[in-house]
Recover the amino acids of this structure.
């Protein structure tokens, strides 16, 4: 079992999620102050964290405390999280969207088959689940699904991100379909903030 399962059993997932969001916002503000004002910060939100009645007010409070520009903050939610108590979720998301906060659908294609939420909720980004990317160059069905999601996102003026890009063939396939953003170990492994800062410094000097 992962560390997240331990936190869930001990009832700590909400506190951890709160800490992660606040830490991410503080780091984002630090990078902006250092001159990388174009960087966006995306943060995964857990189901229990999102369903907490204090979640929306806590996000507003973190934005105020860290002085982050909310237009550079993106919260990643799953399809199932959106469809649970959909009417209250619409109001909650619009409360944050009104301040400029952006929303992404994580692991798109693995949850609810209804796409009505793409019209109902203030969604900005769709992230194609890595299960469709893994064999995208070998499995015609995965290739068709990934291509369809990219076309649909573009037609709805949504950003589209492919998760789990691991090799050049996947990169070539997704680039040929004009996928907006690519994410995965092909570009870099997950890094702590200090090493990301070093990479940014190198890019600035190049």
């Amino acid at each position: 079992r992962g560390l997240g399962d331990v936190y869930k059993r001990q009832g700590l997932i909400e506190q951890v999620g709160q800490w992660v969001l606040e830490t991410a916002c503080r780091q984002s503000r630090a990078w902006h102050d250092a001159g990388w004002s174009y960087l966006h910060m995306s943060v995964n939100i857990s189901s229990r964290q999102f369903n907490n009645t204090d979640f929306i007010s806590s996000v507003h409070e973190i934005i105020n405390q860290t002085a982050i520009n909310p237009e550079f903050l993106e919260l990643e939610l799953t399809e199932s999280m959106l469809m649970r108590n959909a009417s209250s979720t619409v109001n909650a998301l619009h409360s944050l969207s009104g301040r400029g906060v952006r929303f992404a659908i994580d692991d798109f294609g693995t949850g609810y088959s209804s796409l009505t939420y793409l019209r109902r909720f203030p969604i900005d980004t769709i992230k194609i689940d890595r299960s469709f990317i893994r064999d995208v160059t070998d499995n015609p069905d995965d290739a068709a699904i990934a291509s369809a999601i990219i076309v649909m996102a573009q037609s709805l003026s949504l950003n589209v991100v492919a998760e789990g890009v691991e090799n050049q063939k996947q990169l070539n396939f997704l680039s040929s379909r004009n996928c907006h953003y690519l994410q995965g170990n092909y570009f870099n492994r997950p890094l702590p903030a200090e090493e990301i800062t070093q990479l940014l410094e190198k890019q600035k000097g190049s």
In short: The CA atoms of residues 10 and 44 lie 20 Å apart.
